[in-house]
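Recall the central idea of this unit: under ordinary conditions, the amino acid sequence of a chain determines the structure it adopts. In this exercise we apply that idea directly, starting from the sequence alone.
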Amino acid sequence: MTIKLASLSADLSKEREGEWIEPKEWPGLDLENPGAMTPLPGLGFLVRSTNYPDYVVARQKVLEDLKKEYPEGIIPPEVLAAAEGRLAVDHLLLGWRGLDVDYSPQNATDAATAEEHRVLRNIVYWCAGRVGKKQVEFVKAATKN
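Accordingly, the structure predicted from this sequence is:
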């Protein structure tokens, strides 16, 4: 089989302007069956891509700053949560739906930077990693006469 090159390209417009991504399910939310996938009906995030240029630059700066502040490489969980959350809110997360709290920049900051909201951060980053991707397409083999 041959793959269409164009289907491997990113949609840069969506990466930079954002796209609604709806995670259909997530693992580890069912305490009685931690390996099960839990459906997340109605949940969606308007996010930019983790390839969004401003995010890439800001992330690199944050990593360099953390390396200077914690040269031994052990970053406290609350510091890392705050840094990852701040990056998400400042550069990736533009909105949400399906949560019991309305989206606002302040609500997003409060939740995304809180250490205990790691599941939210993980879902937001997972969604951001899917923005602008296309379904791979294959070229039908030409038939010889």
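Helices lie at 12-17, 53-69, 77-92, 105-112, 118-130.
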